[in-house]
Amino acid sequence: MSRNTIKKTIAIILLQVAAGAAFAQFAWIDPNGVRQYSDQPPPASIPKNKILKDSGSQLRNAKPISPAAGIAAADAAPEGVPAVKAAEPKGPMTLAEKNADYNKRKLEQAEKDRKAADDTKLAVNKSANCDRTRQYARTLESGERISSIDKNGERDYMSDEKRAQEVAASRRALDGCK
Q1: Which of 36, 34, 31, 28 is nearest to 82 (CA)?
Q2: DSSP for residue 156
Q3: Residue 42 in contact with residue 28, Cβ under 8 Å?
Q4: How far lies 69's CA from each of 2, 25, 55, 66, 119, in Å?
Q5: What pTM was computed for the model?
Q6: Other CB atoms closer than 10 Å to residue 86's CB: what's the count?
Q7: Are 35 and 27 in contact (CB under 8 A)?
Q8: What's the pLDDT tens digit per position in 29-68?
Q9: Where are the beta strands (DSSP E) in the chain?
Q10: Are 13 and 25 in contact (CB under 8 A)?
């Protein structure tokens, strides 16, 4: 073999060793019960029984375990070591869930807008009614003769007793106005 061939062979072997180290994978179950993968070793706080894969090779006599089995192993932790119970892992929202959430927010906003429009309309109507009642009360209190047309088409004038009743009613109505 020539010297260049030997150098190339040694370089290839060194690159393969370095590449193997670069592809070293670690897998473990985190405290939330979620399986984690990394090219970095797990944190020191992860117990050895929760490390699934170490430095690119399986642990001796260890089988890959599911997150549920990892939680069960955490429940059976020795005394003095707190057992970590994890909530159900929740992945990212699906398109259907995002759409349902968007539609829900859209309906809630439409309901708020409708309620605000109704409240505004009621406030405007109340203000207009209060203005009409104030004008009617001023007319009643002015002492002018007030007449109306009855069902026979004849003019009927308001009596003093009826005027007093109408003034009292308009004052009660104006109590609700600002």
Answers
A1: 31
A2: E
A3: yes
A4: 56, 21, 22, 5, 57
A5: 0.40
A6: 16
A7: yes
A8: 888 888 888 888 888 888 888 888 876 554 444 454 454 5
A9: 26-29, 35-38, 51-54, 57-58, 147-149, 155-157
A10: no
